[in-house]
Predict the structure.
Amino acid sequence: MFVTRPIGAAPRAGRAGVTTPLVPMRTSPSARPRSALCLVWGTVCLLQAIPTAVSSEEAALLAVPAPPVLAVKLIAHRGVRSVAPENTLAAIEAAIAMGLDYAEVDVRTTADGHLVLLHDPDVDRTTNGSGFVVDQSLEMLRQLDAGSWFDPRFAGTRIPTLDEALEVAGDRIALILDWKEASPRALLEALGRAGGCGSAMVLGSAKRVASLAALSSDVHLIEEVWKPEDVDAALRSGVRIDAISPPLGLVTRRVAELCRASGVRIFADMQGVGESCEQLEAAVGEGVDAVLTDHPRLLLDCIAQSP
């Protein structure tokens, strides 16, 4: 059984020091009209973004009621990649329609210095082209079909620029920018064109987040950590970070306590085929603030079905 707590609060100890797992907070009756408006707005945005790519049945699955305030936030890995091609505007719109707080996307640089969304260093897997992103101009990349590989209904989908992604996200969802290949100044300039750093966050290694922190005190930073000693180093480095991103298995009671004491959130990576309600419950029980997921619809269902 889950219990309610606000984000950032410590897990509640039960008998014999056992931590009681947590669940989403319940919304009051007065909040329901607002949730209904959010649902309508999210559904309209998704259908406008991909009017011919998603059937009415699929749209109904995406158009779920806006979730209540959760004890743990959900991050759509590369957007909702189960219903739209990864790292596309359609995948971001799907995350918005589901009422998620975050969509994670990957950022790379073209030969002529533009920032685009693509996970792999080359375009072979997710387009009808070939070759490395860094060797091709934006104009060349824009000629590629980035949707047919996923489903014929997405034929003609283009590789989006970071500027386009930030514009689509607006204040409807926070983007987490997984820094694959880009200069720190280029990232900051893109955020500036979008009206400032806002709610967008940049995810990267210790060296990379330090380089951004040195250039701006406004950018929101998430540091990747892979080992227990990485957590200690991140919290003691003196670099201002908003969160760490460890594998879910690395999150222990000690890690959670250290992060809470430092005012640093935990955005745990639980994406993969093993995602389950039990895994989400374990994550909440350990005190994580958000989870990166490939299956947000599954996790929303877990939350809705919890007693």
